[in-house]
């Protein structure tokens, strides 16, 4: 009797182990890409203290195959009230370059896209040595049609400060 129970217990244990092994190896891979979209109110190419974050901006994640140059995966999303988007991307993209790309701004005065500043790379492979599947992308900005009046002063201060820092180094 005890022997029979032991065998049953062992069978149960091994099937649990088998199921666990099967689920870890076949579980679908997915990544959560997060970032923020802003209005570049100074047309500066970076965030300043007068940057505004855009709600309802459309962005996409495109994964392009290294050798074929073909877009193998594309998924888009919208930003929330804090300008933050969250886009899920399924599968591992070891052989692809994945980029977050600006698509469309809901703001009439802030919808210009500057080629080169309209995208940022994200690494969507488990081989990248990161322990989480959440990937934070750099912020991307649409350009305001006219810089805000404060920007002149602000950018002069910014570049002045950068010069002082360079002199110290
Ligand atoms: C932003 O920075 C500039 C320059 O330092 C300053 O004059 C301005 O008051 C700041 N604006 C806000 C909204 O904090």
From TrEMBL:
The keyword Disulfide bond applies. Residues 1-21 form the signal peptide. InterPro entries: Pollen_Ole_e1_allergen (IPR006041). Keywords: Disulfide bond, Signal. Pfam families: Pollen_Ole_e_1. Belongs to the Ole e I family. This is Uncharacterized protein. The lineage of its organism: Eukaryota, Viridiplantae, Streptophyta, Embryophyta, Tracheophyta.
